[in-house]
Amino acid sequence: MREQPDGAALLAIASEVLRKELLPLLPGDKVYAARMIANAMGIAERQLRQGEGPQQEEQQALAALLKTEGALEALTREFAARIRRGEFDEDVEARRLLWESTVQRVRESAPKALVGRSSGP
Q1: Residue whose C-alpha is closest to residue 118's, from 108, 109, 106
Q2: Phi, psi of 120 (to 5 degrees)
Q3: Is residue 45 a contact partner of residue 15, using CB atoms and an 8 Å limit?
Q4: What is the per-residue pLDDT for 119?
Q5: Whole-prediction pTM value?
Q6: Which Pfam family, any one of them, does this sequence belong to (predicted)?
Q7: Helix (H, G, I), strand (E, B) or coil at 6
């Protein structure tokens, strides 16, 4: 059993201390770097909390759409190549997958951007 708080909670605590206590004390030329570090910590925290589920779901959806198996990175490259060739220009399922993938990435990187937004393309 892991000690509490877990890794995600530790990142959240560290990020809060950095933002609220340390950031105001930094010289102006160091603020941007400190904010980047705090943002990276926030992304890592959210990824830890969500686990591998979103990645596995995306991999399964891509495999079904492309009718092939493979690692997520390879499937993503294949999907991008087929999009460039115009194979999915009118494909509703491809559009849905792109939308869901984008929303998932925003959930991890900038969740406040989703507040008040619609749930579909």
Answers
A1: 106
A2: -150, 165
A3: yes
A4: 60
A5: 0.78
A6: DUF6285
A7: coil
What is the distance between the terminal CA atoms of the chain, rounded to a whole angstrom?
42
Q: Total domain count for the chain?
A: 2
Q: 70 is in which domain, residue-wise?
A: 53-114
Rounded Cα gap, residues 37 and 43, in angstroms: 10
Tokens at residue 21, please? 């206590």
Tokens of 60: 């399964």
pLDDT for res 3:
79
In a domain, 60, yes or no: yes
Q: Which residues of the chain have pLDDT under 50?
A: none
Q: Would you say residue 120 lies in a domain?
A: no
Q: 59 and 92: one domain?
A: yes
- Residues 42, 63 share a domain: no
Decide if 99 is inside a domain.
Answer: yes
- Structural tokens at position 87: 């194979």
Written in H, E and C, the secondary structure of 26-80 is: CCHHHHHHHHHHHHHHHHHHHHHHHCCHHHHHHHHHHHHHHCCCCCHHHHHHHHH
